[in-house]
Amino acid sequence: MAASRFLVNLTRGPEDPDRVTVAMVMANAALALEKEVVVLLSTEGVRVAEMRVIESIAEPGFMPLKELVDTYLDDGGQIWACTPCVKKRHLESVLIEGVRLVGAVAAIQWVSENGVSFSF
Fold this sequence. Notes:
The structure is a single chain. Helix content is 39%, strand content 21%. The two termini are 25 Å apart. The protein contains five helices and five strands. It is an alpha/beta fold. The chain has a single domain, classed as DsrEFH-like (Hypothetical Protein Ychn, Chain: A).
């Protein structure tokens, strides 16, 4: 049986704009294939949930990150952020609207129910 759920685990932040961008391209591609998709931001990846970071990344050859994120959310994608990672970096008050804070159990459960995970 083909996977119906995709979890894109993004562990990099603005220090690696190419990886951040490609992760969002993959997430959008999975949505275009009518899959259920979650982008999980962990470790430094949680910084990507800040609007100032989203607006600052535009890798040559790709759509700007803001457009990728807007399209992803508009098409029904979910963004989850690791609760301890967010708290460690004191980012609770700067996250974009709609980001859901989760722990490890939520991510494991998502993948274990007919899912597959990509990590960036």
